[in-house]
Task: structure prediction
Amino acid sequence: MTQDPDAQIESRSDELLAALNGGSQSSLFAKFAVERVIATTCLHFRVGTQRYGVPLGAVHEILRTRPCTPVPRSPHAVLGVISVRGTVTTVIDLRRVISGTGESEEKEARQRILLVQSEGEVVGLLSSEVHGVLRLTKEELELEPPVGGDVGEFVTAIARPRKLDDIVVLLDPVALVRRACG
Amino acid sequence: MSEPLEEFRAEVQEIIEALSRDLLVLDQNQKDGVENPALLNEIFRGVHTLKGIAGMFGFERLGALAHMLEDLLDSLRLDRLALSAPVLDVLFEGVEGFHRLSVDEKDPTVDLTAVTRQIDELTKKARRRTKKLYDLEESVLAVMTEYEEHRLFANASAGLFLYRIQAAFDFDTIDADLQGFKDRAGEQAEVITYLPSGEGSFDSKLELDILLASRLTTDEVMERFDIAASAVTQVPFRAEPSDWPKPLIESSTDLTTTESDNLLVRGVANSVRVDIRKLDHLMNVVGELAIIRATVAQLTEAIRSGEGRRAVSELQRLGRTFERQLEDLQTGILDVRMVPLGQLFDRLARVVRQVAREHRKEVHLEVSGVNTEVDKLIVEELADPLMHLIRNSIDHGIETPRLREKAGKPQEGRLTLSAFQKGSHVIIELRDDGSGLNEEFITKRAIDHGLLTEEAASEMPKEAIWNLIFIPGFSTRAEITDISGRGFGMDVVKTNISRLGGVIELDSKPGRGTRFTINLPVTLAIINALIVEIGDSPYALPLASVQEAVPFDPSMLHNIDGDQVISLRDTTLPVCDLRALFSKKSNDDNTTGEDAAKTKRYCVVCAFGARRLGFIVDAIQGQRDIVIKALGNTLSNVRGFAGATDLGQQQVALVLDASGLVEEMLQPREKKGVLHA
Result:
């Protein structure tokens, strides 16, 4: 039986999905497939008009937006603080960190706050819209993107998913938070 | 951290604290020339326990250190080695080693070779004592434990008589009978040991030879223990006790002890040991809450089935019960967080001893109010500032014994550390009877550093001059001493204390000494706060520092040399418009809030010690209890806020760091720019 591995993975995508999500159905096959083909799994969202991704493992939770208390004298990128089940959490407005993302119509109902782990603290990142989970193969990734300047500090790769007719900029949340609050 | 490890640390910490406490008493005893065998035993047991648990948790170095100290203590206990200052140094050093190793067993900065060598030398010098002093048979001596032998020696040295008493005991009641025997001996006699006598035993009885040391005569012994003359024999002395060589007095002083700078005074464990009764109480409250929860479900059902009216009054009653239980739960949990300050004071006592030795000064520390309870968090944060204050007092305050004698004071300096509760605050006082602060020297130094102009200095009140030492970069010693004078200054002490919502004040009298007074809130967890509005957002202002709130009108403002002030009942009060301050965003353009000239604003007067400042706010919502939550590390550089609090319904209010803001506003302008140069 000599079947193309990619086709095999395609045909057993349910199993694969379960494996990726840490479900109980994970099988040796799924693990093999993940290691062989999937380079990274990320949460895929939009800020302004640009698509971004952060490693799925870094995301704790996704929240609907809620009133945010501004913190006077804080760095520009800080939108304010919210209370997440009793923990005061800093929220960073991604539009203020990632310059040049272009303006688009912001529908507040679609905005989401991604809670990510950053150096011992959970920080909220405000995005315009969350699209979902994106599994990227090695071929789809450009690992050393030619981005410099401030943004270069926290951009880890550029992805060109086959399914999308667009690029996704992969971010390192820890470096991003450091940049925004440092 | 894993749970058992945390528990281990908590236990080690407790043992170390007890050891430090006992060693300090031992130290004092040694100075006074008093022997205290019970205390030595206590210390020995502590180290022994430590050795045991260290082994269980794989803390090998800690265990090895404990083992060595145990040997040393054993020699002391058995009087093979005399207690002397160098021996005490080794013991203190050992305890410091325990402390550090319990934090990090692999800490490479913990160098045990010096202390190991010292212990080795001391233990080697410990004499093996000859056994015979009373004329006892070899067979009896052979079965005695070393400790029993030691007691025999001690009693012989004291010239007590030794009696051998034969008595028969019932097998069934022997334990109780022996205890009764010991009780009867009381303080008049000491039971050294008991051995089965050679006579053998009859039926259900066991014959014992009891060795008893006492001052009593044979007749008195017979009477006291109600025994026949034939059963008591006095064991004669074999030689005069004075012929026996005294244990060696150890005099070498080449131990390099840990510098006081590196002493560890912070606690190791993050856990709090809790009285089970406190937890039982909490458990009860939680049980009550569960009942309320069930009742709510019933009432919901009742409302659904149309019994609305009855349910409403029932709900009202339930609401009140709920409120009461919740309050109970809150205070109960706060109570659990409280720990006595004594734990910290014990650790600081070690610092006093060490620093005094380094400076060749004689210092006696007096401690009071050890049972005053403070939130665990505050206790830990207090460790460093208090340690620094103590260093300062010994280094700069208390004079050398010679100078003190010249000044007509006792050679031994006195340091008093006391604590007491005053309402919802705890006052901690550190007082020394040293030379006091030098006013001229402080002003001169402040002028030299450009922190003060000469004109300003000439009209400065005394208290203001004292406060100069809290300015960053101020150090009162011309040459930096090895202990007190390096970057970490009094300014850090002040910042640390104000971060806890506390205030530090000082008072000094030349030649008489200096007193530092620290005023702290009992807890940081729940505080009473005034909710005010600035711009459109609510802010919480801790009520403890608020004196009053008065209506404010812009026409009240005066501008004195760039500072805004108002007149309040004939005094001038500096004020700060928080809306203006907060609308200056660090990165944004200056979009001042001048436009929204609200008709009615308020001035909230806050006081910290002698310093007062009015905060101008847009509105006052009222007061309520709040739970302060820390802001994340991402906002650690933002000044002016002590944290945030959840007001419910997804609303978060920032908590103003009133003392920090007062500090910021009242900074003398002369020094601005100089400090950061």
Remarks:
- Confidence is low (pLDDT under 50) at residues 22-27 of chain A.
- The interface with chain B takes residues 66-67, 69-76, 78, 81-83, 86-90, 92, 118-123, 177, 180-181 of chain A (CB under 8 Å).
- The first strand of chain A starts at residue 38 and ends at 47.
